[in-house]
Amino acid sequence: MLVPHLYLNGKCEEAISQYVKAFGAEVKVLIRHSEDEPQKGILHAEIYIRGQRVMLNDVSGNSDYTQRGPLELIVIYDSVEDLKNSYEIMKEGSQTISPMQATDYSPCVVEFWDRFGIPWGFMVAKS
Length: 127
Description:
The chain is of the alpha+beta class. It has 2 domains: about 1-65, Signal recognition particle alu RNA binding heterodimer, srp9/1 (2-Layer Sandwich); about 70-125, 2-Layer Sandwich (Signal recognition particle alu RNA binding heterodimer, srp9/1), CATH 3.30.720.110. Helix content is about 20%, strand content about 40%. The protein contains 3 helices and 8 strands; from the N terminus they run βαβββαβαβββ. The protein has helices spanning about 10-25, 65-70, 80-90, and strands at about 1-5, 25-30, 40-50, 50-55, 70-75, 95-100, 110-115, 120-125. It has an 8-stranded mixed sheet. The longest helix is centred in the first third of the chain and has 12 residues, at about 10-25. About 15% of the residues are buried.
């Protein structure tokens, strides 16, 4: 599955609200940063717009929003093995955005720019 991921630089909640009003979007996942860091906003959100899954979040941590851009393509895998096989092919000439790791929402995630400058995120669906 290929999913667009929007980086909203502190305006994620506002965008979700507008998309709900405009498109009748359904919010399926909404994970905020910890209570210790509320200024960081939304860690991970998933909405459905007319049947299409869209991921959103507020850029935070070491991410440079201006360098990263507002959109990344996410490929959802069924297994860590499948993800790693694809990443081995794609990583040649790539630049890492976020190294391969487990998160609150996936057992394995990696983000990178491919050798053509396209931002990708690979993740395994959480069981």
